[in-house]
Write a structure and sequence with these properties.
- The chain is an alpha/beta fold.
- Helix content is about 45%, strand content about 15%.
- It is built from twelve helices and eight strands.
- The chain has an eight-stranded parallel β-barrel with strand order 1-2-3-4-5-6-7-8, surrounded by nine helices.
- β4, α6 and β5 form a beta-alpha-beta unit.
- α5 packs parallel to α6.
Length: about 280
Amino acid sequence: MASKIRAVSSSPTPGARFRAALAAERPLQIAGTLNAYSALLAQRAGFRAIYLSGAGVANHSHGIPDIGDTTLADVLIDAQRITRRVELPLLVDIDTGWDDPAAAVCELAAAGVAAVHLEDQVPAKKCGHLPGKHLVPTAEMVERVRAAVSGKPDPDFVVMARTDAAANEGIPAAIRRAQAYVDAGADMIFAEALRTLDDYKIFTAAINAPVLANLTEFGQTPYFTIEELRATGIAMVLYPLSASRAAAAAALDVYATIRRDGTQKSVVGKMQTRADLYHTLGYQA
């Protein structure tokens, strides 16, 4: 009887695609996406990697503040909708890892996610750019990181550790925490709410792993340029909710105009055309 040969896929894993994007572009610009359609738009704009924000899931999918009330299931459904439609590697915010970071990593990896980041705040977390954050001890976060790493399906899947310590404990303490997280197996570091280019230079020089800068709007970090951040050694720059903030403002303007004027005539010029929508979706194909 002829032996059966199992076909082996030669396609790179999502994690490998994320690492390839990082190798191709320094710093790697990562665009925040809320859903599959916004992911298509980010792909069309030329981004090599995309992001699903925990705040985005809470605010836009559930209409609630980002205070740790969303679950793995909530994030998973939004992530699956993106990965089923777009092949760009997706980085996903898993907050504090919920009750089982290993399970979270395992399920998101099975959904086609390339990378996750988890943070060192207490489970009742707050936005990283607001005052009043509370962090767990370094040892507790180290255990979170180890658990998340144990759920990796392959070596290329990325587990990124985020530290919020700069605002609470200062840059030296944040660096010590980040070093401990790398020693625990974190592939990359998310340095939240740093305020100056010198902070980034000091941070990246001390960390033996790629470091991400979060350029969220209306926060503690100025709107540094790619060139400025490249000079500091930053490997990734994240724009987590830029497009969704713009879309929300535009939607409110359209709703208010229609309600006031009884017609959308004055704002039609601001809208995406039907033809452009079909072009983005590949409708004719």
